[in-house]
Amino acid sequence: MRVRTEAKRRSIIETARPLFLEGGYAGVTMAAVASALGGSKGTLYGYFPSKEELFGAVVAEASPGLFALLETVEAEADDLVSGLEALGCAYLRLVLSQPVIETSRMVVAEVGRQPEIGEIFFSNGPARTLRRVQEILSDLGKRHDLVALSDPEAGAHFTGICDGGLYSRIIWGAEPVPTDQEIAQRVRRAVRRFLAGYAP
């Protein structure tokens, strides 16, 4: 019986990522991934039983370090405003990171021919991220006596105000990725607008 390890799983994902980006979802086979790994298809299927599951993992872990930043927001929040600003910055750095942007562009280019990758991408990327943002908002609201942050739509409102169409403009190449300083400035303005609606 083969012992599965996290290091091997990560190696498979990192090997598959450039193959998907270069060849597109339809152009990549599990055999090609196994060949790039220098191993057997049996080993690959032991970690990922299908191409759909492998692609889902590539999407979900496009920027694992940046997604992990979302997990630290609550612990670092001394007050509501600083907590929201930390959350907004972590969110934008994640969704505007190069791996996420590259994967998004690939999905946009292929979803018309391969509709199933849209659902795989959405459930493993945007939906997963939004759930985590909503969880953090709810926790911040409980800690700082702002029940409105538990509203199921608060996460979508918050991310929408922080993003303000920036993600779409970057996807289409109409605007460069902002610096961390520009992101922080953008988020400070967004938090003021958000609280004007949720904590008038």
UniProtKB/TrEMBL annotation:
Keywords in alphabetical order: DNA-binding, Transcription, Transcription regulation
InterPro entries: Homeodomain-like_sf, HTH-type_TetR-like_transc_reg, HTH_TetR, TetR_C_Proteobacteria
UniProt keyword Magnesium present: no
Domain spans labelled HTH tetR-type: 6-66
DNA-binding region as annotated in the record: 29-48
GO molecular function annotations of the record: DNA-binding transcription factor activity; transcription cis-regulatory region binding
This protein's name: AcrR family transcriptional regulator
UniProt source species: Actibacterium naphthalenivorans
Classification of source organism: Bacteria, Pseudomonadati, Pseudomonadota, Alphaproteobacteria, Rhodobacterales
